[in-house]
UniProtKB/TrEMBL annotation:
SUPFAM superfamilies: CheY-like. PANTHER family: STAGE 0 SPORULATION PROTEIN A HOMOLOG (PTHR37299:SF1), TRANSCRIPTIONAL REGULATOR-RELATED (PTHR37299). The keyword Zinc-finger does not apply. The keyword Isomerase does not apply. It comes from Pedobacter psychroterrae. This is Response regulator transcription factor. GO terms for molecular function: DNA binding; phosphorelay response regulator activity. Keywords: Phosphoprotein. PROSITE patterns: HTH_LYTTR, RESPONSE_REGULATORY. The modification 4-aspartylphosphate is found at D55. Residues 3-116 form the Response regulatory domain. It holds the Pfam family LytTR.
Amino acid sequence: MLNAIIVDDEEFARSSLYFLLQENCENINISGIAKSVSEARTLLQQHSVDLIFLDIAMPGENGFELIPQAAQSKSHVIFTTAYDQYALKAIKANALDYLLKPIDIDELKEAVTKASKYIERSKNEFSRVESLHNLAANLSERNEIRKISLPNGQGYSLINIDDIIHIEADSNYSIFYLANNEKITVSKVLKEYEEILPDHQFVRIHKSSIVNLNYLREYNSKNGLEVILKNGDKIAVSRRRASDFAERIKLYTSFDSDK
């Protein structure tokens, strides 16, 4: 039996993972559930934890900031996140595995089985190299595509990032405008998506706007600095971001021609 904790800032994600583990992984005992890295540190002090199911993008401290305490307590990590752009960093953080939300039951069971075997072996000898190869192999086998999961209240909407035209901030919410004319509102700030989405493709042109350069049709100063997207939307470019935006367009053109 492995003692595990779940760390995720989203209530639905915490409860759904708890249910999946209870129903499908009999060898996992949930010792605690945390909604922040700070709460997770407290759980690590209070319990002997073998395995941490750890979200990455959370308000305040992100999941990677728990790694030093996890290592100190000899706890192993399976990352659970909506963003596959974190895969390489997860490998560097020595995670046992990496699950993309919404979590697939078979992938969860496979990850837990591999983690159980590895943890049993690691009680005798810790092999960091084996851990890295294990995660790298898992990622390769899955052939993951570039998608993100957007919480929608009832679960998640799985979105290909190439279908995102632009994202607009509305206070502490982010509104995604998609190629199929759908709009999805998410209760996360724009900065989180600025940090996650590939910067050769997505550019923040205003404190309230991120655009996908794949949908850029025109950039002009006729009515002030603005971009016109392929769907006809016009979005202002702030003056302090104009110079950087111009450079990013040059880099994007260069990147696109190298494909």
